[in-house]
Amino acid sequence: MLLQIYCRQIAFFTGPTVGGLLNATCGNITELIIAIFALSNNQIAVVKYSLLGSILSNLLLVLGTSLLCGGIANLGVEQKYDR
Questions:
Q1: Identity of the highest mean pLDDT range in 5-19, 21-35, 45-59, 69-83
Q2: Is residue 44 part of a domain?
Q3: Which residue ranges traverse the bilayer (predicted)?
């Protein structure tokens, strides 16, 4: 939580592009630390499954949430996904 506060403060002064990159990097810093320690202890399977879980959760959770919110926001209107 403290790291997020610092990232937001730095993003305020550096602009949206640098702030967005910094926020994305700091948001995954715990996964990066776990992967580094697992690699240093030669636990390749832990790193593989950590990456797989991260990719699947980002794909499914973000897509599902966006479709759900889009459906709630456009009740009674047919949505078209042509772009």
A1: 45-59
A2: yes
A3: 12-39, 51-77
